[in-house]
Amino acid sequence: MGKEREKLWREVRELSLGSEIDRLHSPPSPLHFLRDYVSQSKPCVISNAISHWPALKLWSHPAYLSGALSNDYVSLHLTPNGSADAVTPVTSAGDLCFASAHVEKVPFPEALQAVRSSSSKRETVGYLQQQNDCFRTEYSTVASDCDGDIAWATEALGCSPEAVNLWIGTHLSVTSFHKDHYENLYAVVSGEKHFLLLPPTDVHRLYVQPYPAANYSYHRDTETFKLEIEQPLRHVPWCSVDPYPSPEREASERLKYPFFFDGPKPFHCTLKAGEILYLPSMWFHHVSQTPGDGGYTVAVNYWYDMQFDIKYAYFNFLQSVSYESSSLSPILSWREDEDSESGDGEV
Amino acid sequence: MGKEREKLWREVRELSLGSEIDRLHSPPSPLHFLRDYVSQSKPCVISNAISHWPALKLWSHPAYLSGALSNDYVSLHLTPNGSADAVTPVTSAGDLCFASAHVEKVPFPEALQAVRSSSSKRETVGYLQQQNDCFRTEYSTVASDCDGDIAWATEALGCSPEAVNLWIGTHLSVTSFHKDHYENLYAVVSGEKHFLLLPPTDVHRLYVQPYPAANYSYHRDTETFKLEIEQPLRHVPWCSVDPYPSPEREASERLKYPFFFDGPKPFHCTLKAGEILYLPSMWFHHVSQTPGDGGYTVAVNYWYDMQFDIKYAYFNFLQSVSYESSSLSPILSWREDEDSESGDGEV
């Protein structure tokens, strides 16, 4: 089985994906987008698609945003290290959990200040994000600085966005490998976003495993975090692989996750302000960022409903095939529809 | 593996295909067609899409066709039983081969007469077909009775048809289960066509095996056929299952091919004159027919290039997973790209 799976990883690249993400220098027609990207589950980067957004000029000025949103409460995510929704040691023995950020609603100016003053030294990193359509709720005051949808994607996909999310962070905030059950149009407004991408065919290379859910809580008086396992116990299936292990962990990580480190390289792409990434549903992605002039990175992403079609059924079949490789690899078998404990059903 | 594969067969039906082929009562827009059918690898039947073709009125009259094509030579396929490109016993011991028809070029009026006078009693069945773009070559004289393409499909797929084929036959001609590496728009002009359809996910249910290629040759003086294995030996991978075995063979066929007979029923659809079937690439199909007023069935099909994308890579992976089921099932493993001996690469 191992040989056949490796052939699949290679074949999808040779036949369809190539070695680099396609770049389009103007918005595609709905038909072109649907035929050459969505239907084929193939990402692309589109330039010059949001040049008309006022946000592109305005949002790199913290004074503008803080002024416009001075009375709005937004969800601030706090962690000691910038890794939320990530596999994290929870005991001194190194037992791992799936850690969620401490979330609190604070006035936007205070929240932005917390993001901009994030510090690894002080072990407090703020990230403005909330994947619950926050752009159209918490940030409705500035919603008119962007379009409400990506028009050619809406026409191609035949529906309006199910959720629109805003992200404001610094280089300290990193999103670990995961996938979403949405078609994703991801627009960078200020700064840069760096994506590592792996197609759904490569699911075994990420060693998805169930981890006990845990939550950070932040204690303002001592400026410290506590990480506690949720009770009753709940398990979240999540990717085990950190693509950028620290030098002292690299050798052991490479031994633990040979499919990832020894297989085809993930696709890498950097999105500059003004560019959109089409990230197909079920693609695994790892996201980091470089701040722009304002000292932060801003992005808006549009989630459109995906089709649960033959591609999704094939993915489930592939995922259900267990690892069976070296003794270092966990013997795992996972099915989407058995992920009932994962909450939002996303890995 | 068997359990996971059965779940795949069920899941693709539950999530996407449903229990019956969709029917559209007017031609879809290119976007609708691409989004809801091509991208999802989902068949549909379209009515009222070719009502304007002169062929619909003219071609059920043998006199019209024979008059219009009186000077044209066309490819007549002859077999003793109406089964060409099918698995057939080649020895009295029952050894099986992949049998191709005797093909000769004859003037159209004579060819049509051979089709209309086909007889199982006389063991001579004629079928007018040639899957090499014959409609635009051998039948160019009457090509203007139809459209040169299916306009909304051409726009959706972003290319013109690679081949257009004509089929004139009787109830005696049956096409065995196989798949094509093309997106197929199949239009019935006279009579009815009956399709049994299975999605690519169900590949193991058809027990694709390599059979030695063989050819019928027809001896006009004795009005008999000879079936001979090709030399040098060449193997063609083909579906082993006959969905309609004779009563005396039924019990043994059911034992030999349990995945087919015990699994989900194939989709069945009957196309009437004036209807089009969208048959997605890689779908397995078995075709039979009921003659119209002229004593024959006529169909024109448009083959468009398919995308060799992630769906195709998934299919190849699935196909490469061996059978491993009951002792009655052959242990088989097959990959598309190793089909080099199959000639046109089709199963």
Automatic annotation (TrEMBL), chains A, B:
Coiled coil: none
UniProt domain JmjC: residue ranges: 126-319
Transmembrane residue ranges: none
One Pfam family recorded for the sequence: Cupin_8
Family to which this protein belongs: Belongs to the JARID1 histone demethylase family.
Protein name: JmjC domain-containing protein
Source species taxonomy: Eukaryota, Viridiplantae, Streptophyta, Embryophyta, Tracheophyta
Underlying gene: A06p024220.1_BraROA
